[in-house]
TrEMBL record:
Belongs to the FAD-binding monooxygenase family. One of its GO terms (molecular function) is monooxygenase activity. Keywords: FAD, Flavoprotein, Monooxygenase, NADP, Oxidoreductase. The keyword Flavoprotein applies. Its cofactor is FAD. InterPro entries: FAD-binding_Monooxygenases, FAD/NAD-bd_sf. This is NAD(P)/FAD-dependent oxidoreductase. It holds the Pfam family Pyr_redox_3.
Amino acid sequence: MSEGAGRKAVEVPVHDALIVGAGFAGLYQLHALRDRLGLSAHVLEAADGVGGTWWWNRYPGARCDSESHAYAFYFSEELLQSWEWSERYPEQPEILRYLNHVADRLDLRRDITFNARVTSARWDAEDNLWHVTTADGRRRAATWLITAVGCLSSANIPDIPGRDDFAGRWVHTGHWPHEGVDFAGQRVGMIGTGSTGIQAAPVIAGSAAHLTVFQRTANYSIPARNTPLTSAFKRWAKENAAEIREAMHATGNGHPWPVSERSALEVDDAEREAIFRAAWEKGGLRLRATFRDILTDRRANDTAAEFIRARIREVVKDPKTAAMLTDIDHPFATKRPPIDTGYFETFNRDNVTLVDVRADPIERITPTGIRLKSGAEHVLDIIVFATGFDAMTGALLRMGITGRDGLALSDAWAAGPRTQLGLQVAGFPNMFTVTGPGSPSVLTNMPVAIEQHVEWITDCIAAMRARGVATIEPTEEACDRWVAHVNDVANATLMPQAGHSWYLGANVPGKPRVFMPYAGGMPAYRRICDEVAAAGYEGFVTTGARTRVTA
């Protein structure tokens, strides 16, 4: 295929599929399409290596909150057995090594172009192709466009007045310098106390002259109790891989342990306390699985919330600081529930100060630091923005995607993302979104959600090719029904009560407030996806050479 009018024609490579992103999702999608279906598939990756989120996120303390034996691909027994984790919760460098291992083992690099940030993706109805342009001006085309850009990959850098006048250095945790940042002897200000800030604060405090944490929203956190894996555990995980996979597929959030069937309100105070304490000492996300109704009954949730507040007050020595850290305004686990290594203990250090910017907001960044509304100024050498991401939609909207009849994705989603199953968007033929808005995605152990999506997309493409179908996309009505269902499911939980959650897009000024992930759990979601496929892709419209059929 060539392009050019009035100039020398430029040959444009044409593929069966173009995949954007070389993290967990993009690597598996390439393998599935190329090695299982025999298609011409190619990955475009903005970074200069594989890893996706784990290539970019190199901030101090960056670590997975899924247990390592579950945070891996399970589609290949050979691949699973060829890797060994070292810790209960793997750190960023180890996860990056794992993804490089996957890329090497499956020989994926030969079909990946690095340093290729997508700046435009345009659907051409005349030739039924997506035309994709990268930042360096290079073009490619493909029948299928698959976005595997990750849910947490578009950094949310707050536009605080005076930011660019700061004479020191500022960094965002999502775009951390690869050479690292030397905090020794530095006065550091960190804005943000979500999961990233909770991981970073203890490490920064360990070397900085002083760390000032600017907290807008107090947060729950559970100790990780991270530890090196024993040889006995490593052996058990490999010998029981099938059972672990089955357990992950059976649970709503994709972790390898079930949610208890008991209610927090069915047991007396002493028994409930003992159950919570056992989970607290075990560490990690299991605490939210101790009772079935923690996310559906406010009274049950209050028991967990108060338990955690009590633990914070036990740890933090200064009563004023403890009061700020426990002034939590949302139910437990309605925002992403962080796990930590010494976060609350950090505030017992002499070189750490907590500032409540809800009570005294940040007015501006000055050349020498941060000034609050009260006039108080904190002199700083380095500012760390631990302010998270424009989650789930940000990376997609920054790609310049244009569908049929010139419809921009940003316009299609002006009132919030609308998808069918979180997999496709009406008006954007042959475009799939791996773990897109409207799917379980960030509410799950991500590799489980990614494997399910990649396999559904691969099966769908295989089915369309077998039927001689040129395009597939959802109907507007199907998207309307799915968005309504996603909202109904969310409203059956307590999650929408965290009005400032990034699940709702509330961390990004001007972003529509819509609950984006599917809260119905992986088993229910998997069943719905399978039923849609079994019914001939119900809710989707397909076109052949001469036909247009609504399935």
